[in-house]
Amino acid sequence: MKKNVANMMCLDLFLASQDEEDFAATKKSILPSEFLQPELISFNLYLDYFSIEINKLNRENDINKIKAFASKFEWIDNIDKIFEGENFETIVLTNEQQEILWVNDGFNKMTGFNKNFALKKTPSFLQGENTCPKTRARIREKIRKNEPFKEVVINYRQDKSSYKCEIKVFPLFNEHTTHYIALEKVV
Fold first, then answer.
1. In CA terms, which of 33, 100, 123, 134 is 20 to 30 Å from 19?
2. Which CATH number does the domain housing residue 166 bear?
């Protein structure tokens, strides 16, 4: 029994280290009865892989949603370039008056606020007593100048707990600035 468990764990580790093509080729040579043993104890490896794949898919869907907005509003910005190499939890899309038009699912996870609750509000509704006035002023000035920028701001979740939020804001243009996109993460 111990030998079988050790063999299954080794098999599981080996399969988890394979890329998709090698995994598919290897899987064909494994008998289903061997592969589906109840002793397969490293299922967490598969769950980790699955979680990573779901996150990639969610990111791709979020970017495609922004690309749909880009097409609708005829932005000349390179959307792929904006997202290239960026690590974010939340995307916030606002109009020129900074009213929120769309947020991704990460917004609810990060802030606790329902996506629909955020619509038509400005992102400043997340700020509170410990949000630095100087940071607020720098943000307003960069938006006024239509400059991309990065800031760290103290925001507040729905449960009133505070968190440090790194925001990267990009103005979006057609003939002039029409929208802003913010990529956000907890730091």
1. 33
2. 3.30.450.20
